[in-house]
Amino acid sequence: MDLGIEGRRALVCASSKGLGRACALSLAREGAQVIMLARGREALEAAADDIRRQTGAQVTAVVADITTEAGRTATLAACPDPDILVTNAGGPKPGDFREWSRDDWIAALDANMITPIELIRATIDTMIERRWGRIVNITSAAVKMPIDILGLSNGARSGLTGFVAGLARQVAAHNVTINNLLPGPFATDRLVQTAARAASDSGRSVQDIMAEREQRVPARRFGDPAEFGDACAFLCSAQAGYMTGQNLVLDGGMYPGTL
Ligand code: NAP
């Protein structure tokens, strides 16, 4: 299927590794011009080079911490008017809520709620003017099925989800869609980090924790980031124009509800 996004400008946040990188690659394969960003220059430039090599797409790399105002300003200077915006940032630290101070909560809200809202605020009006826009927020399956040690994520991402549920309906008439992609366990660095924390809390090995987690997934495997990237590219396609305000769970069947 031709997704109808050749030449569209796609700003993909937090994209030198993991799920963001996979989204950038899938969009580049479809002919989009991709603007990638991350804090670490080396991994970002390597990822951008690799995507250029694999796809021949025009790829711009911006070194920025997207959770800061300076980082967002630098990013938006490189791409002020994207047609496609994929919001993403690192997830909050795991732990027990008794350990978290007000500052921990503010940091989580900044990264996983306010940053995407600020990026949407800065870009949505030009999408509306052009009558074409696709916004995808990478959130977490924890929005539907909270994870005990990730309370900061459960809370902050639910705030974003509630906000965009309202906004999506306000902009749908302009052919601007806003959807959220909710990853379950995908094989990325982040998954290993959360397993390492669980291992140190329980005195078990990381391998043990990972094997047990994999067995809890009905698909009996972790997700491949490429599967996530392609789902994102579809949500950004011309064909997905009638799909908005949705929360799409990609979790190998872990969410146990009928709907
Ligand atoms: P990952 O493999 O650790 O990759 C994170 C990427 O984001 C890296 O490129 C990192 O580069 C970049 N990044 C992190 N903080 C940033 C910041 N402040 N500004 C700019 N770039 C930043 O993580 P992932 O697994 O792809 O996870 C992506 C998101 O999905 C996270 O919010 C995570 O919590 C969520 N999630 C993941 C899973 C999973 O199983 N993988 C499940 C549920 C939710 P730099 O460090 O160089 O900046």
UniProtKB/TrEMBL annotation:
Note the CDD domains from the entry. Answer: BKR_like_SDR_like (cd05344)
**Pfam families cross-referenced by the UniProt entry:** adh_short_C2
Q: Which PANTHER family match?
A: 3-OXOACYL-(ACYL-CARRIER-PROTEIN) REDUCTASE, NADPH-DEPENDENT REDUCTASE BACG
Q: What family classification does the UniProt entry report for this protein? A: Belongs to the short-chain dehydrogenases/reductases (SDR) family.
User: What name does this protein carry?
Assistant: 3-oxoacyl-ACP reductase
- Organism of provenance: Bordetella genomosp. 7
Q: What is the lineage of its organism?
A: Bacteria, Pseudomonadati, Pseudomonadota, Betaproteobacteria, Burkholderiales
